[in-house]
Amino acid sequence: MTLANTAILIACLLPIVCALLAKVKGFSRMGRSDGYDNNNPRAWLAKQSGWQARANAAQANSFEALPLFIAGVLVAQQMHAPQELVNNLALGFVAARVVYIGLYVANLATLRSLVWGAGLACSVALFFIA
User: How far is CA 64 from the centre of its chain?
Assistant: First the structure.
């Protein structure tokens, strides 16, 4: 497995990390009226605010970013782009997404948007390096 393929796996796991962040505070209160409701998790998440709501939004955005990134890696590899460059762009994307999630949860919108753009640039660049 190439490093870029490993980056795809990591990128696919990032939304799950965001979901856990969004829910972690509610896990300790499970069974109470304000605790996490595993019978209706989406409704419970919709009621959250602050960093939990932002972690949930980061989860949605992480899922939205996946198709372009995955396609970019696969196209670059299929077209026999230099693997080291594919790996570097894939790692750049993952690094940008990790920072993006942190900035989203921390409510630093301007920086978050800049880092989002860097991740998008990595995904788009994958299509043009072959």
Answer: 8
Q: How many CB atoms lie within 10 A of CB 17?
A: 16
pLDDT at 46: 85
Residue 59: give its domain's CATH number.
Answer: 1.20.120.550
Does this model's pTM top 0.85? My answer is yes
pLDDT of 28 reads: 58
Q: What is the tens place of the pLDDT at every residue in 74-110?
A: 999 999 999 999 999 999 999 999 999 999 999 999 9
DSSP 90: H
| Burial category of 55 from C-beta neighbours within 10 Å (exposed 0-12, middle 13-18, buried 19 and up) | buried
User: In the numeric block, which tokens belong to residue 102?
Assistant: 């942190």
Which residues, at least 6 apart from 100, have a Cβ–Cβ distance to it below 8 Å? 58, 61, 112, 115, 116, 119
Write down the pLDDT at residue 24: 82
Domain that holds residue 96: 3-128
Decide if 18 contacts 59 (C-beta within 8 A).
yes
Instruction: Give how many domains the chain has, as a whole number.
Output: 1
Q: Looking up tokens 């299509």, which residue turns up?
A: 127
